[in-house]
Amino acid sequence: MRVSEHIKEVQSVIEGSQTSRDDVIATSWTRCIDDYHLDPVVMQEAYIVPHTQLKEHRERLDKLIRTAKYGLDALYHQVADHGYVLMLTDAEGVTVDYQGDASLTWELKKAGLYLGAEWSEARAGTCGVGSCIYTGEALTVHQSDHFDATHSPLSCTAAPIYDVDGSLAAVLDISALHSPEPKASQALTLQLVTSCTRRIEMAALMNTFRKEWVIRLSQSPAFLDVDPECAMAVDAEGRIIGMTHSTQRLLSRIKGNDWRQPRALLGCSLSDFFNLDINELPALSRALPTEERLLATIHGDLWFAHAIAPQPSSIRRRKKVVSGSLASLYGDDAKMADLAIKATTLSMSDLPLLLNGETGTGKEFLAKAIHESSSRKSGPFIAINCAAIPESLIESELFGYADGAFTGARSKGKRGLIEQANNGTLFLDEIGDMPLSLQARLLRVLAERELLPVGATKAIPVSFRVLAATHKSLPELVKNGSFREDLFYRINGATLTIPSLRERSDILWLAEILITKLVDRTVCVSVSAGHILERYDWPGNIRELENMLQFALAFCEGNELLPEHLPEQLLNAKRLTFREAESAGGTLEVLEACGWNISKAAKVMGVDRSTVHRRIKKAGIKRRYDTD
Protein backbone atom coordinates (compact mmCIF):
# COMPACT_ATOMS: atom_id res chain seq x y z
CA MET A 1 0.00 0.00 0.00
CA ARG A 2 1.24 3.45 -0.89
CA VAL A 3 1.99 5.91 1.88
CA SER A 4 -0.67 8.36 0.69
CA GLU A 5 -3.29 5.58 0.61
CA HIS A 6 -2.33 4.45 4.09
CA ILE A 7 -2.58 7.96 5.53
CA LYS A 8 -5.96 8.42 3.85
CA GLU A 9 -7.24 5.13 5.33
CA VAL A 10 -6.11 6.04 8.84
CA GLN A 11 -7.88 9.39 8.60
CA SER A 12 -11.10 7.80 7.30
CA VAL A 13 -11.16 5.21 10.10
CA ILE A 14 -10.66 7.94 12.70
CA GLU A 15 -13.64 9.76 11.19
CA GLY A 16 -15.82 6.66 11.70
CA SER A 17 -15.74 4.96 8.29
CA GLN A 18 -16.17 1.20 8.06
CA THR A 19 -12.93 -0.78 7.89
CA SER A 20 -11.79 -4.33 7.34
CA ARG A 21 -9.04 -3.87 9.92
CA ASP A 22 -9.19 -5.81 13.18
CA ASP A 23 -10.96 -3.92 15.97
CA VAL A 24 -7.75 -3.82 18.01
CA ILE A 25 -6.01 -1.98 15.14
CA ALA A 26 -8.80 0.53 14.51
CA THR A 27 -9.08 1.25 18.24
CA SER A 28 -5.33 1.78 18.47
CA TRP A 29 -5.38 4.21 15.54
CA THR A 30 -7.99 6.24 17.41
CA ARG A 31 -5.80 6.24 20.54
CA CYS A 32 -2.86 7.49 18.51
CA ILE A 33 -4.88 10.56 17.48
CA ASP A 34 -6.97 11.21 20.60
CA ASP A 35 -4.56 10.21 23.40
CA TYR A 36 -1.08 10.58 21.96
CA HIS A 37 -1.80 13.39 19.47
CA LEU A 38 0.17 11.65 16.73
CA ASP A 39 -0.26 12.72 13.11
CA PRO A 40 -0.33 10.00 10.40
CA VAL A 41 1.08 12.52 7.95
CA VAL A 42 4.21 13.02 10.08
CA MET A 43 6.40 9.97 9.55
CA GLN A 44 9.08 9.27 12.15
CA GLU A 45 11.89 6.74 12.13
CA ALA A 46 12.34 4.41 15.08
CA TYR A 47 13.75 5.93 18.26
CA ILE A 48 16.79 4.36 19.97
CA VAL A 49 17.21 5.36 23.62
CA PRO A 50 20.66 6.61 24.76
CA HIS A 51 23.07 3.95 26.02
CA THR A 52 22.90 5.15 29.65
CA GLN A 53 19.11 4.83 29.64
CA LEU A 54 19.33 1.43 27.99
CA LYS A 55 21.59 0.19 30.79
CA GLU A 56 19.00 1.30 33.36
CA HIS A 57 16.20 -0.48 31.50
CA ARG A 58 18.30 -3.66 31.19
CA GLU A 59 19.26 -3.60 34.86
CA ARG A 60 15.63 -3.44 35.92
CA LEU A 61 14.82 -6.50 33.81
CA ASP A 62 18.10 -8.32 34.43
CA LYS A 63 16.61 -11.27 36.32
CA LEU A 64 13.96 -11.92 33.67
CA ILE A 65 16.52 -11.67 30.86
CA ARG A 66 18.57 -14.39 32.54
CA THR A 67 15.50 -16.55 33.20
CA ALA A 68 14.28 -16.20 29.62
CA LYS A 69 17.65 -16.68 27.93
CA TYR A 70 17.34 -20.38 27.07
CA GLY A 71 13.78 -20.01 25.77
CA LEU A 72 14.67 -16.98 23.66
CA ASP A 73 17.70 -18.70 22.14
CA ALA A 74 15.61 -21.75 21.23
CA LEU A 75 12.85 -19.59 19.72
CA TYR A 76 15.29 -17.57 17.63
CA HIS A 77 16.80 -20.74 16.16
CA GLN A 78 13.28 -21.71 15.05
CA VAL A 79 12.58 -18.44 13.22
CA ALA A 80 16.01 -17.10 12.19
CA ASP A 81 16.03 -18.84 8.81
CA HIS A 82 12.73 -17.17 7.92
CA GLY A 83 14.10 -13.64 8.29
CA TYR A 84 12.66 -12.84 11.70
CA VAL A 85 14.19 -10.73 14.48
CA LEU A 86 13.49 -11.48 18.13
CA MET A 87 13.12 -8.63 20.62
CA LEU A 88 12.43 -8.58 24.36
CA THR A 89 11.16 -5.23 25.64
CA ASP A 90 10.31 -4.02 29.10
CA ALA A 91 6.85 -2.79 30.10
CA GLU A 92 7.73 0.65 28.72
CA GLY A 93 8.44 -0.73 25.25
CA VAL A 94 12.25 -0.37 25.33
CA THR A 95 14.11 -3.28 23.71
CA VAL A 96 16.41 -4.80 26.35
CA ASP A 97 17.41 -7.97 24.50
CA TYR A 98 17.65 -8.66 20.79
CA GLN A 99 18.65 -11.38 18.34
CA GLY A 100 18.88 -10.81 14.60
CA ASP A 101 20.98 -11.42 11.50
CA ALA A 102 24.30 -9.62 12.07
CA SER A 103 24.69 -9.04 8.32
CA LEU A 104 21.54 -6.87 8.39
CA THR A 105 22.50 -4.80 11.44
CA TRP A 106 22.31 -1.41 9.71
CA GLU A 107 18.96 -2.16 8.08
CA LEU A 108 17.49 -3.59 11.29
CA LYS A 109 18.69 -0.67 13.40
CA LYS A 110 17.19 1.82 10.94
CA ALA A 111 13.87 -0.04 11.14
CA GLY A 112 13.97 -0.08 14.96
CA LEU A 113 14.37 -3.87 15.19
CA TYR A 114 17.37 -3.43 17.43
CA LEU A 115 18.59 -3.15 21.01
CA GLY A 116 17.41 0.06 22.70
CA ALA A 117 14.54 0.77 20.27
CA GLU A 118 11.44 2.16 21.97
CA TRP A 119 8.14 0.72 20.70
CA SER A 120 5.55 2.27 23.00
CA GLU A 121 2.32 3.37 21.30
CA ALA A 122 2.89 6.95 22.45
CA ARG A 123 6.25 6.97 20.64
CA ALA A 124 5.72 4.72 17.60
CA GLY A 125 1.95 4.59 17.19
CA THR A 126 0.13 1.31 16.55
CA CYS A 127 2.77 -1.44 16.61
CA GLY A 128 3.19 -4.96 17.92
CA VAL A 129 4.91 -4.13 21.21
CA GLY A 130 3.05 -0.92 22.02
CA SER A 131 -0.42 -2.31 21.28
CA CYS A 132 0.44 -5.48 23.23
CA ILE A 133 1.43 -3.35 26.24
CA TYR A 134 -1.83 -1.40 26.07
CA THR A 135 -4.18 -4.37 25.62
CA GLY A 136 -2.24 -6.94 27.62
CA GLU A 137 -2.99 -9.43 24.83
CA ALA A 138 -0.90 -11.27 22.24
CA LEU A 139 -1.43 -9.81 18.78
CA THR A 140 0.00 -9.21 15.31
CA VAL A 141 0.38 -5.77 13.75
CA HIS A 142 0.97 -6.60 10.11
CA GLN A 143 2.42 -4.20 7.55
CA SER A 144 -0.10 -1.36 6.96
CA ASP A 145 -1.76 -2.08 10.32
CA HIS A 146 0.95 0.23 11.68
CA PHE A 147 -0.24 3.78 12.34
CA ASP A 148 3.02 5.33 11.14
CA ALA A 149 3.61 4.51 7.47
CA THR A 150 7.35 4.40 8.22
CA HIS A 151 6.79 0.99 9.78
CA SER A 152 4.36 -0.39 7.18
CA PRO A 153 6.94 -2.79 5.64
CA LEU A 154 7.21 -4.57 9.01
CA SER A 155 5.21 -7.46 10.40
CA CYS A 156 5.32 -7.58 14.21
CA THR A 157 3.88 -10.28 16.44
CA ALA A 158 4.06 -9.67 20.19
CA ALA A 159 2.96 -11.43 23.38
CA PRO A 160 3.05 -10.14 26.97
CA ILE A 161 5.14 -11.68 29.74
CA TYR A 162 3.61 -11.26 33.18
CA ASP A 163 5.43 -11.24 36.50
CA VAL A 164 4.49 -13.73 39.23
CA ASP A 165 2.35 -11.04 40.90
CA GLY A 166 0.25 -10.59 37.75
CA SER A 167 1.77 -7.29 36.63
CA LEU A 168 3.08 -6.82 33.09
CA ALA A 169 6.85 -7.35 33.12
CA ALA A 170 7.90 -7.49 29.47
CA VAL A 171 6.87 -8.14 25.87
CA LEU A 172 8.33 -10.74 23.52
CA ASP A 173 8.18 -9.68 19.87
CA ILE A 174 9.03 -11.46 16.62
CA SER A 175 9.29 -9.08 13.68
CA ALA A 176 10.23 -9.30 10.01
CA LEU A 177 11.45 -6.66 7.60
CA HIS A 178 9.69 -8.48 4.76
CA SER A 179 6.78 -10.94 4.88
CA PRO A 180 3.92 -12.27 2.73
CA GLU A 181 1.04 -9.82 2.30
CA PRO A 182 -1.77 -11.89 3.93
CA LYS A 183 -1.92 -11.32 7.68
CA ALA A 184 -2.86 -14.97 8.13
CA SER A 185 0.73 -15.82 7.20
CA GLN A 186 1.70 -14.80 10.78
CA ALA A 187 -0.66 -17.22 12.56
CA LEU A 188 2.09 -19.73 13.32
CA THR A 189 4.36 -16.91 14.53
CA LEU A 190 1.65 -15.88 17.01
CA GLN A 191 1.45 -19.44 18.34
CA LEU A 192 5.22 -19.66 18.72
CA VAL A 193 5.55 -16.40 20.63
CA THR A 194 2.63 -17.12 23.00
CA SER A 195 3.95 -20.60 23.69
CA CYS A 196 7.39 -19.19 24.49
CA THR A 197 6.03 -16.52 26.86
CA ARG A 198 4.01 -19.16 28.71
CA ARG A 199 7.17 -21.22 29.29
CA ILE A 200 9.13 -18.14 30.41
CA GLU A 201 6.42 -17.30 32.95
CA MET A 202 6.48 -20.91 34.14
CA ALA A 203 10.27 -20.81 34.61
CA ALA A 204 10.05 -17.50 36.47
CA LEU A 205 7.42 -18.90 38.84
CA MET A 206 9.43 -22.07 39.51
CA ASN A 207 12.62 -20.05 40.17
CA THR A 208 10.88 -17.56 42.44
CA PHE A 209 8.97 -20.04 44.59
CA ARG A 210 11.34 -22.97 45.00
CA LYS A 211 10.67 -22.95 48.74
CA GLU A 212 6.86 -23.00 48.44
CA TRP A 213 4.21 -25.36 47.09
CA VAL A 214 3.76 -25.01 43.32
CA ILE A 215 0.69 -26.48 41.59
CA ARG A 216 0.81 -27.04 37.83
CA LEU A 217 -2.39 -27.64 35.86
CA SER A 218 -3.20 -29.07 32.46
CA GLN A 219 -6.33 -30.21 30.67
CA SER A 220 -4.33 -33.06 29.18
CA PRO A 221 -2.63 -35.71 31.35
CA ALA A 222 -0.02 -36.26 28.62
CA PHE A 223 1.19 -32.65 28.79
CA LEU A 224 0.93 -32.11 32.56
CA ASP A 225 4.57 -32.83 33.32
CA VAL A 226 6.11 -31.46 30.11
CA ASP A 227 4.11 -28.36 29.14
CA PRO A 228 1.32 -27.45 31.59
CA GLU A 229 -1.05 -24.57 30.80
CA CYS A 230 -1.21 -23.04 34.29
CA ALA A 231 0.81 -22.87 37.49
CA MET A 232 0.46 -21.14 40.86
CA ALA A 233 2.42 -20.93 44.11
CA VAL A 234 0.80 -21.20 47.55
CA ASP A 235 2.23 -20.62 51.01
CA ALA A 236 2.04 -22.94 54.02
CA GLU A 237 -1.43 -21.62 54.87
CA GLY A 238 -2.76 -22.36 51.39
CA ARG A 239 -2.84 -18.73 50.21
CA ILE A 240 -2.03 -17.96 46.57
CA ILE A 241 1.21 -15.95 46.44
CA GLY A 242 2.20 -16.19 42.78
CA MET A 243 0.82 -17.30 39.42
CA THR A 244 1.38 -17.44 35.70
CA HIS A 245 -0.83 -15.30 33.47
CA SER A 246 -2.94 -18.23 32.27
CA THR A 247 -3.65 -19.02 35.93
CA GLN A 248 -4.56 -15.38 36.48
CA ARG A 249 -7.20 -15.66 33.77
CA LEU A 250 -8.45 -19.03 35.05
CA LEU A 251 -8.87 -17.81 38.65
CA SER A 252 -10.54 -14.61 37.46
CA ARG A 253 -13.09 -16.63 35.48
CA ILE A 254 -13.81 -18.81 38.50
CA LYS A 255 -14.27 -15.78 40.75
CA GLY A 256 -16.05 -13.68 38.11
CA ASN A 257 -13.41 -10.91 38.26
CA ASP A 258 -11.66 -8.84 35.62
CA TRP A 259 -8.34 -10.60 34.88
CA ARG A 260 -6.65 -7.19 34.82
CA GLN A 261 -6.97 -7.00 38.64
CA PRO A 262 -4.46 -9.58 39.89
CA ARG A 263 -4.35 -8.10 43.41
CA ALA A 264 -7.88 -9.40 43.91
CA LEU A 265 -6.48 -12.93 43.55
CA LEU A 266 -3.21 -12.82 45.50
CA GLY A 267 -3.71 -13.75 49.13
CA CYS A 268 -6.91 -15.68 48.43
CA SER A 269 -7.19 -19.22 49.73
CA LEU A 270 -6.73 -22.12 47.34
CA SER A 271 -10.10 -23.46 48.51
CA ASP A 272 -11.80 -20.30 47.19
CA PHE A 273 -11.26 -21.70 43.69
CA PHE A 274 -10.75 -25.46 43.99
CA ASN A 275 -12.25 -28.27 46.02
CA LEU A 276 -8.92 -28.80 47.72
CA ASP A 277 -7.30 -28.12 51.07
CA ILE A 278 -3.61 -27.34 51.58
CA ASN A 279 -3.19 -30.63 53.48
CA GLU A 280 -4.35 -32.58 50.42
CA LEU A 281 -1.55 -31.30 48.14
CA PRO A 282 0.77 -34.30 48.75
CA ALA A 283 -1.90 -36.49 47.12
CA LEU A 284 -1.28 -34.64 43.84
CA SER A 285 2.42 -35.49 43.71
CA ARG A 286 4.00 -37.88 41.23
CA ALA A 287 3.36 -40.74 43.64
CA LEU A 288 0.07 -41.17 41.76
CA PRO A 289 -0.30 -41.80 38.00
CA THR A 290 -0.98 -38.61 36.05
CA GLU A 291 -4.50 -39.71 35.08
CA GLU A 292 -5.48 -40.05 38.76
CA ARG A 293 -4.29 -36.58 39.78
CA LEU A 294 -7.57 -34.76 39.15
CA LEU A 295 -8.50 -31.41 40.67
CA ALA A 296 -11.98 -29.88 40.47
CA THR A 297 -12.80 -26.16 40.51
CA ILE A 298 -15.67 -24.98 42.72
CA HIS A 299 -17.76 -24.95 39.52
CA GLY A 300 -16.98 -28.60 38.80
CA ASP A 301 -14.47 -28.20 35.96
CA LEU A 302 -11.72 -30.83 36.07
CA TRP A 303 -7.98 -30.28 35.66
CA PHE A 304 -5.06 -32.66 35.87
CA ALA A 305 -2.74 -31.38 38.61
CA HIS A 306 0.85 -31.82 39.77
CA ALA A 307 1.77 -30.45 43.21
CA ILE A 308 5.50 -29.83 43.69
CA ALA A 309 6.57 -29.77 47.33
CA PRO A 310 8.82 -27.01 48.73
CA GLN A 311 12.53 -27.72 48.41
CA PRO A 312 14.10 -28.19 51.84
CA SER A 313 16.68 -25.58 52.72
CA SER A 314 18.41 -24.30 55.84
CA ILE A 315 18.13 -20.76 54.47
CA ARG A 316 14.43 -20.87 53.61
CA ARG A 317 13.55 -17.89 55.78
CA ARG A 318 16.36 -15.80 54.32
CA LYS A 319 15.23 -16.40 50.74
CA LYS A 320 11.69 -15.34 51.56
CA VAL A 321 12.57 -11.98 53.06
CA VAL A 322 14.93 -10.59 50.41
CA SER A 323 13.28 -8.04 48.12
CA GLY A 324 13.58 -8.41 44.35
CA SER A 325 15.78 -5.34 43.84
CA LEU A 326 18.24 -6.47 46.52
CA ALA A 327 18.21 -10.11 45.42
CA SER A 328 19.49 -9.04 41.99
CA LEU A 329 22.76 -7.77 43.53
CA TYR A 330 24.31 -11.17 44.23
CA GLY A 331 24.44 -14.79 43.17
CA ASP A 332 25.02 -17.54 45.74
CA ASP A 333 27.27 -15.55 48.08
CA ALA A 334 26.33 -15.97 51.76
CA LYS A 335 27.76 -12.62 52.90
CA MET A 336 25.83 -10.70 50.26
CA ALA A 337 22.69 -12.69 51.10
CA ASP A 338 23.01 -11.71 54.77
CA LEU A 339 23.51 -8.09 53.73
CA ALA A 340 20.40 -8.24 51.51
CA ILE A 341 18.30 -9.62 54.38
CA LYS A 342 19.29 -6.74 56.65
CA ALA A 343 18.84 -4.19 53.87
CA THR A 344 15.37 -5.53 53.04
CA THR A 345 14.29 -5.23 56.68
CA LEU A 346 15.72 -1.73 57.00
CA SER A 347 14.45 -0.52 53.62
CA MET A 348 10.85 -0.23 54.78
CA SER A 349 11.64 2.39 57.43
CA ASP A 350 12.99 5.91 57.07
CA LEU A 351 15.96 5.12 59.30
CA PRO A 352 19.13 6.76 57.90
CA LEU A 353 21.66 4.17 56.76
CA LEU A 354 25.44 4.34 56.43
CA LEU A 355 26.89 2.09 53.73
CA ASN A 356 30.50 1.10 54.35
CA GLY A 357 32.75 -0.59 51.85
CA GLU A 358 35.92 -0.31 49.83
CA THR A 359 35.94 1.82 46.69
CA GLY A 360 34.22 0.01 43.82
CA THR A 361 32.18 -2.46 45.88
CA GLY A 362 28.87 -1.12 44.56
CA LYS A 363 27.65 1.18 47.31
CA GLU A 364 25.49 3.23 44.94
CA PHE A 365 23.93 0.07 43.46
CA LEU A 366 23.02 -1.04 46.99
CA ALA A 367 21.58 2.40 47.75
CA LYS A 368 19.41 2.29 44.60
CA ALA A 369 18.18 -1.21 45.48
CA ILE A 370 17.24 -0.06 48.99
CA HIS A 371 15.37 2.90 47.50
CA GLU A 372 13.52 0.63 45.05
CA SER A 373 12.53 -1.65 47.95
CA SER A 374 11.30 1.21 50.13
CA SER A 375 7.98 2.99 50.54
CA ARG A 376 9.60 5.99 48.79
CA LYS A 377 10.35 4.07 45.55
CA SER A 378 7.88 6.20 43.57
CA GLY A 379 9.87 9.31 44.53
CA PRO A 380 13.23 10.48 43.14
CA PHE A 381 16.61 8.92 43.91
CA ILE A 382 19.19 11.71 44.01
CA ALA A 383 22.86 10.71 44.28
CA ILE A 384 25.52 13.23 45.30
CA ASN A 385 29.22 12.43 45.21
CA CYS A 386 30.57 14.69 47.94
CA ALA A 387 34.14 14.12 46.73
CA ALA A 388 33.44 15.02 43.10
CA ILE A 389 31.87 18.47 43.48
CA PRO A 390 34.39 21.34 43.86
CA GLU A 391 34.26 22.86 47.34
CA SER A 392 33.48 26.26 45.82
CA LEU A 393 30.31 24.87 44.21
CA ILE A 394 29.14 22.23 46.64
CA GLU A 395 27.02 24.60 48.75
CA SER A 396 25.04 25.96 45.80
CA GLU A 397 24.78 22.47 44.25
CA LEU A 398 23.39 20.93 47.43
CA PHE A 399 21.19 23.74 48.72
CA GLY A 400 20.46 25.68 45.53
CA TYR A 401 20.29 29.46 45.43
CA ALA A 402 17.77 32.25 45.23
CA ASP A 403 17.29 34.77 42.45
CA GLY A 404 20.32 37.05 42.25
CA ALA A 405 22.15 35.29 45.09
CA PHE A 406 25.56 36.00 43.55
CA THR A 407 27.20 37.24 40.38
CA GLY A 408 26.62 34.76 37.54
CA ALA A 409 23.64 33.10 39.23
CA ARG A 410 20.61 32.18 37.12
CA SER A 411 17.97 34.89 37.07
CA LYS A 412 15.31 32.58 38.52
CA GLY A 413 17.59 30.82 40.97
CA LYS A 414 18.23 27.08 41.07
CA ARG A 415 16.83 24.12 42.99
CA GLY A 416 19.53 22.29 44.90
CA LEU A 417 20.03 18.55 44.83
CA ILE A 418 18.66 18.17 48.36
CA GLU A 419 15.40 19.86 47.37
CA GLN A 420 15.22 17.65 44.27
CA ALA A 421 15.24 14.61 46.57
CA ASN A 422 11.99 15.75 48.24
CA ASN A 423 9.63 12.76 48.84
CA GLY A 424 12.38 10.38 47.73
CA THR A 425 15.86 9.26 48.76
CA LEU A 426 19.00 11.38 49.11
CA PHE A 427 22.20 9.38 48.64
CA LEU A 428 25.35 11.09 49.91
CA ASP A 429 28.30 9.17 48.47
CA GLU A 430 31.80 9.67 49.95
CA ILE A 431 30.32 11.73 52.76
CA GLY A 432 33.62 11.50 54.61
CA ASP A 433 34.99 14.05 52.12
CA MET A 434 32.35 16.69 52.86
CA PRO A 435 33.88 19.98 54.18
CA LEU A 436 33.21 20.76 57.85
CA SER A 437 31.44 24.00 57.00
CA LEU A 438 28.85 22.16 54.95
CA GLN A 439 28.48 19.40 57.52
CA ALA A 440 26.92 21.97 59.86
CA ARG A 441 24.41 23.08 57.20
CA LEU A 442 23.53 19.49 56.33
CA LEU A 443 23.03 18.68 60.01
CA ARG A 444 20.48 21.50 60.28
CA VAL A 445 18.57 20.19 57.26
CA LEU A 446 18.45 16.70 58.73
CA ALA A 447 17.41 17.97 62.14
CA GLU A 448 14.77 20.50 61.08
CA ARG A 449 13.69 18.94 57.76
CA GLU A 450 13.93 22.25 55.94
CA LEU A 451 16.64 23.94 53.89
CA LEU A 452 17.62 27.50 53.13
CA PRO A 453 18.98 28.09 49.60
CA VAL A 454 21.99 30.38 49.22
CA GLY A 455 20.78 34.00 49.28
CA ALA A 456 17.22 33.07 50.34
CA THR A 457 15.37 34.36 53.39
CA LYS A 458 12.63 31.75 53.60
CA ALA A 459 13.27 28.08 54.39
CA ILE A 460 11.79 25.28 52.24
CA PRO A 461 10.31 22.19 53.96
CA VAL A 462 11.67 18.87 52.67
CA SER A 463 11.02 15.19 53.33
CA PHE A 464 13.48 12.51 52.25
CA ARG A 465 15.29 9.40 53.39
CA VAL A 466 19.07 9.71 53.84
CA LEU A 467 21.51 7.06 52.71
CA ALA A 468 25.21 7.88 53.10
CA ALA A 469 28.28 5.95 51.94
CA THR A 470 31.99 6.05 52.56
CA HIS A 471 35.11 3.92 52.19
CA LYS A 472 36.66 5.71 55.18
CA SER A 473 36.24 5.07 58.90
CA LEU A 474 33.93 7.84 60.08
CA PRO A 475 34.57 7.09 63.78
CA GLU A 476 38.27 7.77 63.11
CA LEU A 477 37.38 11.00 61.29
CA VAL A 478 35.24 12.00 64.27
CA LYS A 479 38.18 11.36 66.61
CA ASN A 480 40.58 13.53 64.62
CA GLY A 481 38.01 16.30 64.28
CA SER A 482 37.43 16.19 60.52
CA PHE A 483 33.86 14.90 60.80
CA ARG A 484 31.14 16.18 63.13
CA GLU A 485 30.09 13.69 65.77
CA ASP A 486 26.48 14.94 65.82
CA LEU A 487 26.21 14.52 62.03
CA PHE A 488 27.70 11.03 62.30
CA TYR A 489 24.88 9.96 64.60
CA ARG A 490 22.31 11.62 62.34
CA ILE A 491 23.33 9.55 59.30
CA ASN A 492 24.27 6.35 61.12
CA GLY A 493 20.90 4.95 62.15
CA ALA A 494 22.32 1.59 61.09
CA THR A 495 25.45 0.52 59.24
CA LEU A 496 25.59 -1.92 56.33
CA THR A 497 29.04 -3.15 55.33
CA ILE A 498 29.51 -4.37 51.77
CA PRO A 499 32.08 -7.17 51.43
CA SER A 500 34.97 -6.64 49.04
CA LEU A 501 34.93 -8.60 45.80
CA ARG A 502 37.79 -10.86 46.91
CA GLU A 503 35.61 -11.98 49.85
CA ARG A 504 32.70 -12.99 47.62
CA SER A 505 32.04 -16.46 46.22
CA ASP A 506 29.91 -15.28 43.27
CA ILE A 507 32.59 -13.58 41.17
CA LEU A 508 31.80 -15.66 38.08
CA TRP A 509 28.08 -14.94 38.41
CA LEU A 510 28.88 -11.24 38.65
CA ALA A 511 31.22 -11.46 35.64
CA GLU A 512 28.46 -13.02 33.53
CA ILE A 513 26.02 -10.28 34.57
CA LEU A 514 28.53 -7.59 33.62
CA ILE A 515 29.27 -9.26 30.27
CA THR A 516 25.57 -9.16 29.30
CA LYS A 517 25.61 -5.42 29.98
CA LEU A 518 28.85 -4.77 28.09
CA VAL A 519 28.16 -6.61 24.82
CA ASP A 520 25.12 -7.47 22.72
CA ARG A 521 26.15 -11.06 22.10
CA THR A 522 26.40 -14.22 24.17
CA VAL A 523 29.85 -14.67 25.70
CA CYS A 524 30.61 -17.21 28.41
CA VAL A 525 33.65 -17.37 30.68
CA SER A 526 35.79 -20.46 30.09
CA VAL A 527 36.70 -22.66 33.04
CA SER A 528 40.36 -21.65 32.86
CA ALA A 529 39.59 -17.92 32.68
CA GLY A 530 37.14 -18.38 35.52
CA HIS A 531 39.86 -19.81 37.75
CA ILE A 532 42.01 -16.75 37.11
CA LEU A 533 39.16 -14.36 37.92
CA GLU A 534 38.43 -16.19 41.16
CA ARG A 535 42.05 -16.19 42.33
CA TYR A 536 42.76 -12.51 41.70
CA ASP A 537 42.76 -10.06 44.65
CA TRP A 538 40.56 -7.37 43.00
CA PRO A 539 41.88 -4.28 44.80
CA GLY A 540 39.52 -2.17 42.64
CA ASN A 541 36.56 -4.48 43.35
CA ILE A 542 33.56 -4.55 40.95
CA ARG A 543 34.71 -1.43 39.12
CA GLU A 544 38.04 -3.12 38.35
CA LEU A 545 36.27 -6.32 37.30
CA GLU A 546 34.12 -4.38 34.83
CA ASN A 547 37.15 -2.60 33.39
CA MET A 548 39.08 -5.84 32.94
CA LEU A 549 36.09 -7.54 31.31
CA GLN A 550 35.78 -4.62 28.89
CA PHE A 551 39.44 -5.13 28.02
CA ALA A 552 38.99 -8.89 27.56
CA LEU A 553 35.84 -8.54 25.46
CA ALA A 554 37.66 -6.20 23.10
CA PHE A 555 39.98 -9.11 22.21
CA CYS A 556 37.35 -11.87 22.40
CA GLU A 557 35.96 -12.36 18.90
CA GLY A 558 34.14 -15.60 19.64
CA ASN A 559 31.61 -16.68 22.27
CA GLU A 560 34.06 -17.84 24.93
CA LEU A 561 36.31 -15.62 27.03
CA LEU A 562 39.71 -17.31 27.39
CA PRO A 563 42.80 -16.58 29.55
CA GLU A 564 44.65 -15.00 26.62
CA HIS A 565 41.97 -12.32 26.42
CA LEU A 566 42.59 -11.18 29.99
CA PRO A 567 44.92 -8.28 30.91
CA GLU A 568 48.51 -9.14 31.81
CA GLN A 569 48.07 -7.97 35.40
CA LEU A 570 45.58 -10.76 35.99
CA LEU A 571 47.87 -13.38 34.50
CA ASN A 572 50.86 -12.05 36.44
CA ALA A 573 49.07 -11.85 39.79
CA LYS A 574 50.41 -14.33 42.34
CA ARG A 575 47.71 -15.57 44.64
CA LEU A 576 49.39 -18.96 45.23
CA THR A 577 52.03 -19.34 47.88
CA PHE A 578 55.34 -20.93 46.84
CA ARG A 579 54.46 -24.19 48.58
CA GLU A 580 51.02 -24.30 46.94
CA ALA A 581 52.59 -23.75 43.54
CA GLU A 582 55.22 -26.43 44.14
CA SER A 583 52.66 -29.05 45.10
CA ALA A 584 51.21 -31.30 42.41
CA GLY A 585 47.70 -30.01 43.15
CA GLY A 586 48.83 -26.37 42.99
CA THR A 587 50.70 -26.85 39.72
CA LEU A 588 47.77 -28.69 38.16
CA GLU A 589 45.36 -25.97 39.28
CA VAL A 590 47.49 -23.25 37.70
CA LEU A 591 47.85 -25.21 34.47
CA GLU A 592 44.09 -25.76 34.28
CA ALA A 593 43.46 -22.06 34.99
CA CYS A 594 45.86 -21.06 32.21
CA GLY A 595 44.45 -23.52 29.69
CA TRP A 596 47.68 -25.52 29.82
CA ASN A 597 49.63 -22.61 28.39
CA ILE A 598 53.07 -23.30 29.92
CA SER A 599 54.31 -19.72 29.50
CA LYS A 600 51.30 -18.22 31.28
CA ALA A 601 51.41 -20.85 34.02
CA ALA A 602 55.06 -19.99 34.60
CA LYS A 603 54.16 -16.29 34.95
CA VAL A 604 51.43 -17.06 37.48
CA MET A 605 53.79 -19.19 39.61
CA GLY A 606 56.74 -16.82 39.20
CA VAL A 607 59.06 -19.44 37.73
CA ASP A 608 60.52 -20.19 34.32
CA ARG A 609 59.11 -22.64 31.76
CA SER A 610 61.66 -25.37 32.51
CA THR A 611 60.58 -25.41 36.16
CA VAL A 612 56.95 -25.96 35.14
CA HIS A 613 57.96 -28.83 32.82
CA ARG A 614 60.06 -30.36 35.60
CA ARG A 615 57.15 -30.22 38.08
CA ILE A 616 54.77 -31.75 35.53
CA LYS A 617 57.16 -34.64 34.95
CA LYS A 618 57.94 -35.10 38.66
CA ALA A 619 54.26 -35.17 39.69
CA GLY A 620 53.15 -37.22 36.69
CA ILE A 621 50.49 -34.61 35.90
CA LYS A 622 48.39 -35.19 32.78
CA ARG A 623 45.58 -33.29 31.10
CA ARG A 624 42.20 -34.87 31.66
CA TYR A 625 41.94 -35.94 28.02
CA ASP A 626 45.57 -37.19 27.72
CA THR A 627 45.94 -40.96 27.28
CA ASP A 628 48.73 -43.30 28.23
UniProtKB/TrEMBL annotation:
InterPro entries: AAA+_ATPase (IPR003593), AAA_lid_NorR (IPR058031), GAF-like_dom_sf (IPR029016), Homeodomain-like_sf (IPR009057), HTH_Fis (IPR002197), P-loop_NTPase (IPR027417), Sigma_54_int (IPR002078), Sigma_54_int_dom_ATP-bd_1 (IPR025662). Signal peptide: none annotated. Residues 329-554 form the Sigma-54 factor interaction domain. Pfam families: AAA_lid_14 (PF25601), HTH_8 (PF02954), Sigma54_activat (PF00158). Keywords: ATP-binding, DNA-binding, Nucleotide-binding, Transcription, Transcription regulation. This is Sigma-54-dependent Fis family transcriptional regulator. It comes from Grimontia kaedaensis.
